[in-house]
Amino acid sequence: MAGPTTAERGADTPPDGSTGSVGPSGPSGQDPAARRRLLVRRALIGLAAAALLAAGLLWVLYGSSWLRTEEVRATGTGVLTARQVEEVAAVPVGEPMVSVDTDAVEARLLAGLPRIASVEAVRSWPGTIELKVTERVPVLLLEKGARFAEVDADGVQFATVDKAPRGVPLVRLDLAGSPGAARFTAGRLLAEAVTVRGDLPARVVRETTALEVRSYDDISLRLTGDRRVLWGSSEHGAAKARTLGALMKASPGARQFDVSAPTAPAVAGS
Asked: How far is CA 114 from CA 107, 108, 134, in A?
């Protein structure tokens, strides 16, 4: 009997009668078990290479002499010296750079040197720790006997000096008999004085010798040439500053300027 025709075998059946089935080695002829072993071997090699790389990196960071702390450099100092900052920082020279606790260094500086407002300890590879310092700047002075306590723009008393810095006004708290003394503490009133100082135009600051505070709403300025400014409270400081500038320009010979109510100012003694 004749065999089936091509049409009867179907279009996908090879002429030799084979079924085209895939053998146990797969279409590529590779044993699946051998392929799995190859993949495992490659993974193990990759892991070993990564472990060697990590070990080498750790050795470079901690064990070698290449990335050791060799220098400590302070920048941004003014009144303080770089040496003062470096001594208080106590950075462990000779230790691996990566092991230096920069947070602890910053904490030591802020605690040990109150004149520092902020500091950033930065690793400058390969071997320098840089201490970027911002010092507090005095805006007012409090008399402490024969010495002066410096007060910054945040109202922080941060240092006591023997000589008053040039151009920094005194602040005098005269609370005796003040009706608000029980309500407003000396610290609160000092903060009010700092606020007033921050609102003063640069020209007025240069001419101000003292801020006198008797109560929350009784703050005045003493200017050079025995002149006085009645400021009142710290409220509406920007408006008071503008009004004072206009009064001083319009009445340069006046002895007293009242801007406690900036919409109704007054001058006297001109």
From this structure: 11, 10, 11
